[in-house]
Structure formats: structure tokens, C-alpha cells
Design a protein that fits this description.
heterodimer; A: 80 residues; mainly beta; OB fold (Dihydrolipoamide Acetyltransferase, E2P); four-stranded antiparallel beta sheet; B: 226 residues; alpha/beta; BirA Bifunctional Protein, domain 2; three-stranded mixed beta sheet; 7 helices; 11 strands
Chain lengths: 80, 226
């Protein structure tokens, strides 16, 4: 099953966040609830956690790029 | 009106204070802790946020050592700032869903809290577009910098009450060269008891987030944690 990694609704929908870093690479194992992505707006650090146990399958918004609330920034493949 | 904890850690170096904050954040996110506002005062410390760099510390390590200023890299947003005795640092650990705010709205609400505290002293502080924090007559008097994970907040705000402002000359505060800073004591031209300022902050924070804040000590809270 494919799980979306999304910019969480706790960011302002009108603002773009910048993806600062992914702490896993495509192919790495991820654990549900563990920090996966660090994103930021000015004065706010957003820690985006893995939606499920599995493997980081795809990064669609890479470090240095911008995204909005609800944007899919990657995918985790796993059983959930 | 919900209820939460007011936890005053007193004067504590940044690292052990943040270790406590991390433990409490874990308890918060697993439903074992209500909303908690952590208060602290730090010994002289420059903190570098996730947007910051050592390049915004202008003094050499030897100078900092001579002055007794520690440098710590931290997980909040923002650049470099100074924490020291006479500055109140408050870290509300909250669930944004409960207070009905997104992260950016919450950041602005913290700024509103600082403005409310300063209004209590008869001072008309405000915000400056493009420069987060709270400003009084062109000088920064309060700072904000937060982190959010799964809708739960940590880090928060600081308010200069009686803090020595000289160390701000040794950094580009928030990455801004020669950014003017001030304090409540400087603005009022008199000493301000820290307990009094904390009392104002407690009332305004409680009101801003709909919380009745109950005192708890760290030993008592620690005893209740897993």
C-alpha cells in the first residue's frame, strides 16, 4: 500500500513551506511516527513524521523546494 | 476553559531544560500530559535555530568563553538569539487542534501574547512585517520561534525583562546585523521584578489559549511520567 507523505494541516494553507531536509533516502526503511522530513517557514520548524511503517518509495518535493499544506511531498510503501 | 500546567524550571542551562521539554513533549503526544507551559531562565547562552548559522555569532569562541556565554544549536525555527538571566523563556506544549490554530496562526498568537503583556505595563508594542517577534519603538523586545510535530507545539517565546542586552551586540540577532533590541526595564527606566512579569505572562497566556494554569513542580511532574 502506498502512503502519502503530506505537508500537515498545521501549517498555514496560504503559506509555502520550504522542505529543509529529508532524513531518509529513497529505499530506506521508515517507522511510523518517526521524523521523516523537516520543513520550515520563518520561525517555524515543522517536523513531518512517517505515515506508516515501510520503505520510503518516492520523494516528490526535495530539500530546498517549496510546498503548500496538503501537498504530497513523498510516498511510503508498506503494510501500514 | 481547559486546564494545564505552569511549570517553572527556574534558572537552568539550556540543554537540561530542553531535555525536560523533550520528555514532556513525548508525554503530551501520548496523551499522558495536559497542555503545559514551561518557564525557564537560562545562564548566558546563544542559541542557533534551524535557520541559523555560527556565522551570525560575531565573537570568537575565546571571547565567548571569557564572557561565560554558551553556544547551543537547537530545534526551533529561526536564527541566532541570546538567552540570559532576566529574560523569560516560555515554551507552551499544546495541541494545535485543541486551540483551533494552525502553526502560523499560533506563532502570531504568541506575538499577541507578548504584546498583551507589554500593554499591561502601559507599553504599546507591535509586530513588524517580515520580522517575526515583538517590537517597541523600533527595537525588538520579544522573540518567537516554534517547532511543531504532528500538530503538537514545542519551543515558544522569550521576553527581555531585565536581561543584560550587551550580548546581543555579539550576534546578528535573528540573522539581522545590528538589529536593535530592548527590554522591559530599559523601556520603563526602572527595575521590573521577574516574578511580576511572569505573572502577567501567565494571565495573558492562559487567556489566549483558554487554559486555567495550575502550578506544578518538576519533581512532582517527573514522578508522574513513565
Amino acid at each position: 500500500m502506498r502512503w502519502e507523505v503530506k505537508v500537515p494541516p498545521t501549517a498555514d494553507g496560504a503559506l509555502q513551506v520550504t522542505v529543509r531536509s529529508w532524513n531518509r533516502a529513497v529505499g530506506d526503511t521508515v517507522t511510523q511516527g518517526a521524523d521523516l522530513v523537516e520543513a520550515k517557514t520563518e520561525k517555524i520548524t515543522l517536523y513531518v513524521t512517517a505515515p506508516a511503517d515501510g520503505t520510503l518509495a518516492e520523494i516528490t518535493i526535495a530539500a530546498g523546494q517549496k510546498a503548500r499544506v496538503g501537498d504530497v511531498i513523498g510516498y511510503v510503501e508498506g503494510d501500514g | 476553559m481547559g486546564s494545564g500546567y505552569w511549570l517553572d524550571l527556574g534558572l537552568l542551562p539550556y540543554a537540561p531544560a530542553f531535555a525536560i521539554q523533550k520528555r514532556l513533549f513525548e508525554a503530551l503526544t501520548t496523551g499522558r500530559l495536559p497542555a503545559t507551559i514551561i518557564l525557564q531562565e537560562n545562564p548566558p547562552t546563544f542559541t542557533i535555530g534551524r535557520d541559523g548559522s555560527q556565522a551570525n555569532i560575531l565573537a570568537a569562541p575565546s571571547q565567548l568563553a571569557a564572557l561565560g556565554i554558551e553556544v547551543v544549536e537547537v530545534t526551533r525555527g529561526g536564527d541566532v538569539t541570546y538567552h540570559g538571566p532576566g529574560q523569560i523563556v516560555a515554551s507552551p506544549l499544546l495541541y494545535l487542534g485543541t486551540v483551533g490554530l494552525n502553526a502560523n496562526q499560533y506563532l502570531h498568537r504568541l506575538e499577541d501574547v507578548l504584546i498583551g503583556v507589554l500593554a499591561g505595563y502601559g507599553l504599546s508594542a507591535g509586530k513588524l512585517a517580515g520580522y517575526p517577534g515583538v517590537w517597541l519603538n523600533g527595537s525588538k523586545i520579544g522573540a518567537v520561534g516554534i517547532a511543531v510535530r504532528n500538530g503538537y507545539t514545542f519551543h515558544g517565546l522569550s521576553l527581555n525583562v531585565t536581561v543584560d542586552l550587551m550580548p546581543f551586540d555579539l550576534i546578528n540577532p535573528c540573522g539581522v546585523p545590528k538589529m536593535p533590541v530592548t527590554s522591559l526595564a530599559r523601556a520603563l527606566g526602572r527595575d521590573v521584578p521577574l516574578a511580576e512579569a511572569r505573572g502577567w505572562l501567565r494571565r495573558v497566556l492562559g487567556s489566549a489559549f483558554g487554559l486555567e494554569l495550575l502550578d506544578i513542580s518538576w519533581p512532582d511532574l517527573e514522578a508522574s511520567l513513565p
